[in-house]
Amino acid sequence: MNMEVLLSCMNQPDTGIVKQINAQSDIVIVNQCDTNGSSLETFVNEKGNPCRILFISTTERGLSRSRNMAIRNAQADICLISDDDELLEPDYRENILQSFEQHPEADLIAFNLLVNGKHQKEYGNQVKKVGKLMALRISSVQIAFRRQVILEKGLFFDEEMGAGTGHGAGEENKFLYDCIDKGLHIIFVPIDITNLQERHPSTWFNGFNETFYLQKGWATKRYMGKFYATLFAFYTTLAKRRLYQENCSSFCVLKAMLRGIYSKNVFKS
User: Percent of the chain scored above 70 by pLDDT?
Assistant: First the structure.
């Protein structure tokens, strides 16, 4: 098996981002900028092996569009989703390929994520199946997958969701829900593969405010359906108060999420 990193970024002048994220494998870079085009380059990784760079420049916008373009242009058996604000662990390639070899039943594998060198979420130390509850806690940059099954099932990121759409986040959760609904097998393997560096501010997150919960309500309806999204709204209001209490009241949070779930024109002025 071979693997590629699928990197989404913006306004990069060249392929220097490869070194910045410590890529040690083939890589597809989708660079959203003001031009269209593509180029092929080769670099030698730290172990002396030649690696392929496909550098795609596009005037399209939106993180989900970028990820989908990378998936369609990838060639490897295994693909790892990546962003430009992370540092890949030195042995990520070997660890990911070995994990897929050890778990031939897995179509997707979620790995551990470090943020500034620390685990922000605890998933345990055992290999486990990922269901819809756990899928809510997984970020896109933790996900590696078998490319062929994703293409065969027609599974892509929802281009109405994610950074650049004005609709907030949640695209990775919907992607995982869609994979589960199509019968794909997802597992978690407790291996660190990447370290988010938080080099620049989020393009969509401005705090746990009314807009955040409005977007969250809209997003959860999109992959849970209205009934379960409504239950999730009440759960969020009760269980996540420490996150929003400086910005919103519980009533404000619940009202915003329910408006996101039930209003047909939630993002129209």
Answer: 96
Residues in the chain: 269
Q: Radius of gyration over alpha carbons of the chain, in Å?
A: 19
Q: What pLDDT digit, counting tens, does each position of 123-138 carry?
A: 889 999 999 999 999 9
Six token digits for residue 72? 């369609």
Nearest to 113 by CA among 134, 141, 94, 144: 141
User: How many other C-beta atoms lie within 10 A of the C-beta of residue 63?
Assistant: 25
What's the rounded Cα separation, in Å, for the pair 174 and 228?
14
Q: Indicate the pLDDT class of residue 269, thresholds 50, 70 and 90.
A: very low
- Tell me the pTM: 0.92
Nearest to 194 by CA among 103, 124, 96, 98: 96
Q: What are the beta bridge partners of residue 216?
A: none
Within its chain, how far is the Cα of 120 from the centroid? 16
Burial of 71 (0-12, 13-18, 19+ CB in 10 A): buried
Tokens read off for 224 = 């849970």
